[in-house]
Amino acid sequence: MDEAGPVEDPALRIVLTVNGRSRTLAVPPQRTLLEALRDDLGLIGTKSCCLVGECGACSVHLDGRIVDSCLVLAVEADGAEVSTVEGLAEGGSLSPLQRQFLERGASQCGYCTPGQLMAAADLLERIPRPTRSDVEEGLSGNLCRCGCYYQITDAVLAAAEEIAG
Amino acid sequence: MSGWIGTPAPRGGGAARVTGTQRYLGDIHPADALHAKLVTLDCARARVLSVDPSAALRVPGVRLVMTAAELPQPVPRFGPQFADRPVLAVGETRFHGEPVAAVAAESLDAAEEAATLVRVDCEPLPAVTSVAAALAPGAPLVQDPDLRPGDPLARTNILREHHFGWGDVGSAAADLIVEGTYSFPMVTHFAIEPHGFMAAPDGDGIVIWSTIQHAYWLQREMARLLGMPLARVRVLAPDPGGGFGGKQHAKYEPLVALMALRVGRPVRLILTLEETFQAVRRNAATSRIRTGFRRDGTITFRDLEIDYLIGAYADIADRTVSKGGYSSSGPYRIPAARVVARSILSHTPPSTAFRGFGAPEPNLAVEASMNEAARRLGIDPIELRLRNLPRRGESFIPGDTPADGDWAETVRRAARLAAWDSPLPPGRGRGVALGMKSGPTTGHSYATVRLLADGSAVLYSGTSDMGQGARTVFAQMAAEELGVPVDRISVVMGDTAMVPYDQQTSASRSTVLMGNAVLGACRQIQAQVRSMAARVHGVDEAAIVVDRGVVHLPGRDVAIPEVLGPGLGPLGGEIIGNGESRHEVVAGHPLGGLAAFFEFNCTVVEVEVDEGTGEIAVLRHVTVSDVGRAINPMQVAGQDEGAAIQGLGHTLMEHYIFDESGRIENLGAIDYRIPTSMDLPADMRSAVVENGDGPGPYGSKGMSEGALIPVGPAVVEAVRDAIGVEIRELPLTPERVWRAISERREEIAAADRSALTGGGA
Hints:
Chain A is α+β, with helices and mostly antiparallel strands. Chain A has five helices and five strands. Chain A has two domains: 75 residues, Ubiquitin-like (UB roll) (Roll); 69 residues, DNA polymerase, domain 1.
């Protein structure tokens, strides 16, 4: 009577590069990239909230594009490069964005912070010297209920300054 | 080493938050945990005829389908004010989203699939979702009168009716009486972290994980519910990813605990955002107000009737009603006041604490009335308020804490920052409003600090850090007192097996009440250091003073850590300090105790209205709060601006929409909008008044709610100033504003036509 465990849909084998490291996973077809990152790879920095692509908490980079990982199937990331908040700090030291977030009070409860950071990193890739309205528009898909939007924008502008030298 | 107070010390836990290593509840996976899913109906109210779990039980991996019939009988009920909420719906569902069963399975996929297969035979029933419907003759009763024995209101949908006031409103004379009815919308907290609950059997006890703000309250409630001693109930409450009051009290902890005990394994329930919307919301409210004024602007009386629409179960809502109602007449010198505040039950999700705790709802009516009075009396709205504000030390709610700040200074500062007297171009408008809220009325907090042998320290506190930054300010206080840099202090929270008792994290209390406990713990350490210094240096203890991290010996000063090494000696060890802070119950007081402090805020906004679309652009938003002392100015600004932006949410865009059956039509992030980075005032200025006159450490007061309270009426007035129409119902959506403009135009056109035709009959 007692089966060994849940019967899963047949797993598909995918290979992806996550934060520079090659990972092989067996995932059922309906598994999202968000679930694969959090549950299969233990990369809990990517957060789960609305699951409909509206809040931005699960933002990651997929082949250099910002995506809501709740809307991407894990199998779609087969062969792709994925970066998450865990990949931002290099060699154990915080990136300029991370440091500026801390210095400018841009993280309160912190739950939206990983998504904000990934959206900000994407923005600075595309627009290295953004204006204030570039930042507000670029991060408008990332909700912050603590309401530290001004501090987030200040942090992104300061990081841009720092990176550009 | 001191000098930490008033500095933007780095956020405690900040590095974990920016690197993605912070462990929120959903990031914790107890080994062998089952995943749970709620079984709900697609309507608010239905009679449940039968629940058949057989198909669900056939889904591979399903281990349990918990139904009301499977629970202990009678089904246990819980709640912070009344134990009225059943673990699962009994007999009928009373709000959209109330679970009738829950599934636990090896995977979330299996649980979700099985939840759709639980067959519920039910008969939909009419639901009441508004004050008018709930009070209509013959309205269906939301709660079973048998649950309210001896309650004269048991056969109505009025849960409680609170009466407050002083003086004789009826006989008060007035040159002008301003009256109106104002509506506050039903809004939800929308913490970005959805609520989550886990439980695991632990020997002869239980461990419960929750996103809850009040870990110790939950421990007490669960011990009662499960018949276990407190010592066998361990609550783990990781830092919530936003709380705003929504995470104060139990929601589905009793359910997961009973499920975990039934299956003998951990059970994990993480709500979706949609389910979170169905779990927590703020009261909606309708406020009817009459205020009398003398020609010089002096208030002679205020008469308020506030109908708060609470949900199907009380949660803490009735307390928000009594507390919000109690001080609803505002921060004014009023000779006669009468307040009737009613908690009205409805077939809607239970309303609960939400930043402002019952104050923003009537504040809309009070402050809009002040603006109308200013207009009709020909007195500047700032001046009108200054004429009626109590001075520091002056009693304004008879029998309660007197005004505890230089409130006029706050108002003047806001007026200056907003360039109040400068003219505005056409199409723009400006509005001011005050916000006032009573702080905690009772409190009890303990803190423990361990000063370790290497001069670092660990601080234990039952406060919950949900973003307000409690970890940071407590570390700053300990750093100041012990001379230990904040980066050498760890703050432990969120585990009832580790941290000493704390009543709760609410009412912007923690900097003050827990802060005083932290200070007490540090003082105990200082006293021990003093004895130690006397011994080490061979000096009479009476000749030594230990203060702010420094040991003042006769003729020289040394840092505390320098005394520690020789003082502890070769065996090492540590110095432990315990602190306690109490804010006592006052027998006979309508709220159970006096306000520990008041939050006081003045907000001025400037708007531009697009008359073609009804869209409001907030061009400037000035918020000034009296904080006593800003322990961490960066965090204070973050809380103040965050509260202001949250206030813009309920003012401009947020509200639940119900269909006729009581089903919520706009669940989730697509259809319920909160402010984004594109919805911000172009110019936000947050400032503080610091006179060191608060009851907390270094003269601090609580401050995290004040800036939310007056946003609604300030924007209402600014919009009226811009378009000439006062809209008395929030939110001021483009449609609502556009309709108001259109109606106004039609009225003007009709008046013109009437004038042309000679004034009509």
